[in-house]
Amino acid sequence: VIGLRDVIPPPLRREFNDVYITTELMDTDLHQIIRSNQNLSDEHCQYFLYQILRGLRYIHSANIIHRDLKPSNLLLNANCDLKIIDFGLARPTMESDFMTEYVVTRWYRAPELLLNSSDYTSAIDVWSVGCIFMELMNKKPLFPGKDHVHQMRLLTEVRLYKSA
């Protein structure tokens, strides 16, 4: 999870229109790494997955669901340190009043969300992590749906192949 360095308030409280937040400096995001020609070893992919899951465990232990995990919300620095960002859609698990159906970028959306369930759990974040990991390994999205219906079709047409 990205570290908060500072919050810069406005000079006059009654003119509180903008909030400036300073965070750790990161070099890029996972989306850019996946789209680049940079070769990633299995060890890199495993290390990224480990850090995502560790960050997610931290978030979920605070009873928060991120609800928008995707490669562009995972920042990286030159040391391969990964940080989760963008908590704009995050919600406490206890506040079911705020659980809207429209969350998560389509390609990383869990099946229960595609079926418009408002009764979901932190498992939706785990689904997103699985989709991100496959994209990391294959350098392409696992379920690149063009719209809601196409996304559902891609999920229902999954075929399992045995390795030879």
Automatic annotation (TrEMBL):
It comes from Trifolium medium. It comes from the Eukaryota. InterPro entries: Kinase-like_dom_sf, MAPK, Prot_kinase_dom, Ser/Thr_kinase_AS. Keywords: ATP-binding, Kinase, Nucleotide-binding, Serine/threonine-protein kinase, Transferase. Residues 1-164 form the Protein kinase domain. GO terms for molecular function: ATP binding; protein serine/threonine kinase activity. This is Mitogen-activated protein kinase 3.
